[in-house]
Design a protein that fits this description.
Rossmann fold, 13 strands, 6-stranded mixed sheet, alpha/beta, 45% helix, 20 helices, 5-stranded parallel sheet, disordered N terminus
Length: 548
């Protein structure tokens, strides 16, 4: 069980290890190989494809061999990955800079589990929070929650940003086929007033409830939008003392701060300091999602997460799919020196998935300091880009096929289309869905094999790596599997880079600078701490403000 700290895996210079040096030497020989030739190996799929129930993983179009995988797993053992996985699931304090565990996996553990943090079993606490959240969702869906004028709530608006928005919004869009539209659910994140205005213009203040979603309850964008939402309701209902009680709930780890804002204790749904925002999708952070799809579908999503958690926790590294994805990511970033990575889901419903992964991957592993506070000596997190297929084929695929920089790709596709509530005939739906899948498979083939028979401007050498994840269908369980899959891929890469994937000090820096600039723009004060460029921009703002 977790205590106040854990026996951390020591930071070592992996670049000086024999495993790293072997991979450097091996990468030189692999650069001379081509996927066109490698794919002809009849045994390749047996080694580089994996069937995990309703998910099939094909890594055979990555520029790797069985030897590569063996060397990568050796490096993982040298870095203590197996030990770090055990520490993650035991609730040990692996978030070193903030001295806390990272217990997102506990959010989807069965009630019979036990994990202690500072001598307190957190599983009953999590389960009690889930039940409160489910009760809230059921009351909203049953039209039993009444606004200040006695009208039942019919619209729910989530106000949050970062992990309090990207995950729940992604899942809401992904599971749109499972939304019964009993309640109109919307998401506001940007402090740009257009976001607020666009979402609220067609809503009725009497029947709208807001979820103010902020782990710290200090995020300026969220609190600014929340204050504007209060004013929006007050403009219609007057300064009714029941507005906060009837039209607002909070999701936060800072209950005291929410109460100081006037939120009644019964309207505050907890998350905890040991849950990172971008890893909080399985918690009350997804309150709006629970309203949209119903608690039962949310539970099924968490069951999918837990299934992948168990696979990651118990599988040997050479058969551990999230770990292998992370290790191949290390191979591509550090040994083949590819600076970016693309994720292309061939699913309209997963259109928000790449943006969700941008935060998950780049906020977690966009670090230049190791766990001992020293500058790392190697490249860490790649830049993440993406889009939804087939649209992305007409946007970024020219770059993917012929750009001077190689960007490995994850393709995600589903054998069966999502349940349809439209009026298009089923045979037409299936015909178009097969066209969608054909595009996905063809693009992965084109990236790998290329085409050197055309004209000079047309020729493509191929040899551009990709992985394909093929699932039976996009349902709540499968979505949960995909969420946990990428969470653990990110953890694996951070573990090998010996960085903390659970803090975000770069984000905090940006937050700390906003206050002075805001005061200068509002004319409240004039800061002397700005650089000349920023000072000039502030002056230009004041000079041009009345002209806009």
């Amino acid at each position: 069980m977790a205590e106040f700290s854990c026996d951390h895996v020591s930071v070592v210079d992996l670049t000086e290890s024999s495993q790293w040096k072997e991979l450097v030497e091996h990468s030189s020989s692999m650069r001379s190989r081509t996927l066109r030739d490698l794919i002809n190996d009849q045994n390749r799929l047996e080694v580089l494809s994996f069937d995990e129930g309703n998910l099939f993983f094909d890594f055979s179009k990555q520029l790797v061999s069985s030897e590569t995988i063996g060397l990568l797993t050796d490096l993982a053992e040298e870095a203590g990955l197996t030990t770090q996985i055990a520490q993650l699931f035991a609730g040990e304090f692996i978030n070193r800079s903030e001295n806390r565990p990272a217990l997102h996996t506990a959010l989807r553990m069965p009630t019979t589990s036990q994990i202690k943090v500072e001598d307190q079993d957190v599983i009953p606490i999590i389960q009690a929070s889930h039940e409160r959240a489910f009760d809230f969702a059921d009351r909203i869906r049953a039209k039993q929650w009444l606004g200040a004028t006695g009208q039942p709530i019919s619209s729910v608006v989530n106000i949050g940003i970062g992990g309090s928005h990207l995950g729940p919004y992604m899942a809401y869009k992904a599971l749109s086929s499972y939304c019964d539209n009993i309640i109109d659910c919307r998401f506001i994140s940007n402090v740009d007033p257009r976001d607020l205005n666009t979402n609220l213009s067609s809503l009725d203040p009497e029947t709208t409830l807001f979820i103010v979603n902020s782990k710290s309850f200090t995020t300026s964008e969220t609190l600014t939008n929340a204050e504007s939402a209060v004013e929006w309701i007050e403009c219609s209902l007057g300064e009714n003392p029941e507005i906060l009680q009837k039209h607002f709930v909070a999701v936060t780890a800072n209950k005291e701060k929410a109460e100081r804002y006037g939120f009644p204790a019964e309207n505050i749904y907890p998350i905890w300091e040991w849950i990172g925002g971008r890893f909080s999708i399985s918690s009350a952070t997804s309150l709006a999602l629970m309203v949209a799809v119903g608690p039962e579908n949310f539970k099924i999503m968490n069951e999918g997460c837990h299934q992948m958690d168990q696979h990651f926790q118990s599988s040997d590294l050479n058969e551990n799919i999230p770990a292998l994805m992370g290790l191949i990511g290390i191979w591509n970033r550090n040994f083949l020196e590819y600076p970016s990575h693309a994720v292309i889901p061939y699913s309209y419903d997963l259109a928000a998935f790449p943006a969700y992964l941008e935060q998950l991957e780049m906020e977690s592993n966009g670090k230049n300091m190791d766990n001992d506070g020293s500058l790392v000596r190697y490249e860490t997190g790649p830049s993440i880009l993406g889009g939804v297929g087939t649209n992305a084929q007409h946007a970024i695929f020219q770059y993917l096929h012929q750009g001077t920089t190689i960007t490995p790709v994850d393709f995600i596709a589903f054998v069966n289309p999502s349940p349809s509530k439209g009026t298009i005939r089923k045979d037409v739906v299936m015909r178009q869905h097969e066209a969608l899948i054909a595009n996905c498979f063809a693009q992965s083939q084109g990236l790998a094999i290329g085409d050197t028979e055309g004209s000079h401007s047309w020729s493509s050498d191929g040899n551009r790596p990709s992985s394909t994840i093929l699932a039976s269908r996009l349902d709540p369980f499968t979505l949960g599997q995909l969420i946990a899959l990428y969470e653990h891929k990110v953890f694996t890469m951070g573990a090998l880079w010996q960085i903390n994937s659970f803090d975000q000090w770069g984000v905090e820096l940006g937050k700390s600078l906003v206050s002075n600039v805001s005061n200068d723009l509002a004319g409240i004060s004039t800061s002397t701490g700005h650089d000349s460029s920023t000072r000039s921009l502030i002056d230009q703002y004041h000079q041009r403000k009345d002209k806009i």
